[in-house]
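Hey team,

Sharing the DUF3221 domain-containing protein run so nobody has to redo it. Sequence (164 residues) first:
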Amino acid sequence: MFYRLTLAMGLILLILGGCSSESYGERSDIAGYVMEKKGDEILVVSPESEDLGGNEEFYDAVWAKDAPNDIKVGDRIALWFKGGLETSYPGQATVGKIELHNRSTPKDATISEGEALRHALDEVERDRSLFTVQSIKYDQNQWSVILKDTKSYETQTVTVEDEK
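Structure output:
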């Protein structure tokens, strides 16, 4: 009897332990740039528009809490949510898993793509605008960052000198 009870308890603990672990699929919930950071919350905006069947462009955007301290504005990341997504705009979620994609610096450059984006965002008047990145290019000691307002669809090109 004791053996059966011990075996049953062991199986229950194994099943419960397996159910509580988080698993994330191969495809992230959102991939994009960290456009803003407040405490442990980051605003991630996708650079790719989604087709919603009309003429308007829609750029996915999410405020995610519990972001690691080393994530910075300008980082290009893939983000998986822990739990669900509140579907306001921008959406709201909790960070489950993050992969960084752009901490490298091009040959002959002194600042990274992320640092160039940070400098560009410091230079634009953001008011209540939500921007997405259209392109970031490095050429001959300067960065060209093109930002797009997700509501008005107007673009702004910001030139960032490649110096620390």
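The mean pLDDT is 86.

Ping me if you want the raw files.
A.
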